[in-house]
Amino acid sequence: MIFKRKQKVVENLAEANENAIFNKETEGLSQGQIVFRRFVRHKAAMISVFVLFSLIMIVFTSSGVKIGPFTIPGWWQYKFDQLLDLRTEGCPPGVVGCPTLDMVPSFIDGTGMGLGMHPFGQDDIGHDYLSMVMRGAQRSIYVMVVIGFLGGSIGIVVGSISGYFRGWVDALLMRLTDFVITIPTIIIGSVVGYHFGNLGVGFLAFYLGIFAWTGLSRLVRGEFLKLREMEFVDAARVAGASNRRIIFKHILPNAVGIIIVSITLLMSGAILLETALSYLGFGVVAPDVSLGSLISQFQDSFTIRPWLFWWPGLFIITIALSINFIGDGLRDAFDPRQRRRLGKKEKAASRDQAKIAAASN
Amino acid sequence: MKPLLKVSGLTKHFPSKNHNFFGKREFVHAVDDVSFEIATGETLGLVGESGCGKSTTGRLITKLIPATSGNIEFSGQDITNMKLNEFRNLRPQIQMIFQDPYASLNPRHTVGTIIATPLKIHGKKYGIDVKKQVQELLEIVGLNPEHYNRYPHEFSGGQRQRIGIARALALKPKLIIADEPVSALDVSIQAQILNLLQSLQTEFNLSFIFIAHDLAVVRHFSKRVAVMYAGNIVEVSDHVNLYANPKHPYTKALMSAVPSADPDAVGARERIRLSGDIPSPISPPSGCRFRTRCWKTQDVCTTKPPLIQIGKSLVACHFPEA
């Protein structure tokens, strides 16, 4: 009995100590700093930031950039549309253009690690597949960012205006949203592509962006409708806050979790949309490539030459996963109710302190 | 003495989604022809059952919702139809304490930001040192000034309500509308918060409109109490008189429902059980709203009884209790 009570005292003290640790950490910091610290502490998000950043650096420096008269050479020797001889040596019988990338160290099989001439292999007619994948990733990342930015901003603006002001503005904007939802993006895209030919990747991204905001705007509207009736919004009104202040300082920060999650989903979904449209001949058309068009082009080769499928697939998965993890980390960082778990050492330390304190009483 | 707040004939009808048989829009009569006055430093308790229009009255006075008709006069100025940006200058003088301490604080803001918000909106021109001011306020309401950087979820219900009170005090208001400030709290915490409010009232000479449904709490806190029923004020009296000698039949029934602390005194006060339900606010009965449930109803009750002085109370009844 006494032992139990003592244990309870120790537990309470330990909890108090843990609270003290948390408070010490947030002392004297602005909200932005606190959010940043929480984000940095999110392991998956930090790894994803690193992976995505290095991937973007590698992808965009692979081909050279031409700025006016100067040309900065890229780190890879071939262009994505450069026709080369098809390599057959070292390949299994009946297969051409197999990858030369060797990841097995020399003390196992004796050939040694190295990139070789065509690390990712070659396609049917001899294009270097590594440069094609790099080019495709450039295109896909570009499309994804434009769609995320454009769709995200239209969705947030439309959703928050109609959710906050309600009335006829809401009715008008939501009917507009319904109208946009009924427009079959893919079919119109393919018709436009058929009539006007290849309008380029920029136009494709823009086109998809102005249709991609509908789901987000509905979510944001719902969130605004919920939050505008909360008592803390009334409190801000009683304090004399303007509509702008209420929207940006009180409602939007509380809707940030939903917004970030759906924008990351939107961005990872954008790659697939772009694939579909490229497949229909609108947007990224041969000889230009995107990750999506590479996959759809080589999906039949999966059984014989699987690397033509694996490499762009790996890039898509890496990009989409990293963005989702970063979104996850951002959402957690913006939510002050989230607490990090204390490490074993910190937990033990606070427990020991509590025991000492309990014993001395 | 001139009253700080004078409300006369205040009415709020909310449009209902439903239309009646003839396609005419129906209205919820939330508050109907409510009049009262409050002097500086005075507390008016507003009691009544759920849905009788207490909170709506409070929200009308702070102009969170516009009034349908009637007049609200604050320190001599008519604020009823004042444009919101004109009203901004008067805003600091009328503040509000909210019912739910869990919903009334923005979970994304630190305590410092929450209390500083009204100061930042209105205090710019005074050049106040905001942080110092906020820490002073925290101390006034009995919180540790070092809690400045903490978030609301780290506090208990009572502490959160103290934060809400500090926010209401930040602009040095003259009138505070307390909308059931203790109904979401434990009984022991209720007493602490009430005592805090009382000491603040004497310190800053505040006027309160204290909205509650707990009769004991209102009795403890308010010198004058107004009883509301179905959107009308039926009786206004000082707290001793109201509890000892209720004049309106509804007040009498309400008082008989207060549980007695002395178990042996059962029967000392007869329990009046009202039959029927509260009338629908969409089509309230004509005349006295209480006549559908009153045991004294006669034909004359279909005309609206005026609020008249009887003894120490103002009563709206054709047949007041002796």
Structure description:
The complex is a heterodimer of chains A (361) and B (322). With 361 residues, chain A is an all-alpha fold. In chain A, 68% of the residues lie in helices and 2% in strands. Chain A contains 14 helices and two strands; from the N terminus they run αααββααααααααααα. A two-stranded antiparallel sheet of chain A has the order 1-2. In chain A, strand 1 and strand 2 form a beta hairpin. The mean pLDDT of chain A is 82. In chain B, the strands form two sheets. Chain B has an eight-stranded mixed beta sheet, with helices on both faces. Chain B is α/β, with parallel strands linked by helices and 322 residues long. The longest helix of chain B is centred in the middle third of the chain and has 18 residues. The interface between A and B is medium-sized, with 26 and 33 residues.
List the helices and strands and how they pair.
The complex is a heterodimer of chains A (361) and B (322).
Chain A: H1 2-26, H2 31-41, H3 43-62, E1 65-67, E2 70-72, H4 106-109, H5 129-165, H6 167-182, H7 185-196, H8 201-209, H9 214-227, H10 231-238, H11 243-279, H12 291-297, H13 307-334, H14 344-360
Antiparallel strand pairs in A: 1-2
Chain B: E1 5-19, E2 25-38, E3 43-47, H1 54-61, E4 69-74, E5 77-78, H2 84-87, E6 94-97, H3 111-122, H4 130-140, H5 157-169, E7 175-179, H6 187-204, E8 207-211, H7 215-221, E9 224-229, E10 232-238, H8 239-244, H9 249-256, E11 308-310, E12 313-315
Parallel strand pairs in B: 3-8, 3-9, 6-7, 7-8
Antiparallel strand pairs in B: 1-2, 1-4, 4-5, 9-10, 10-12, 11-12
Helix pairs in contact in B: 3-4, 3-5, 4-5, 5-6
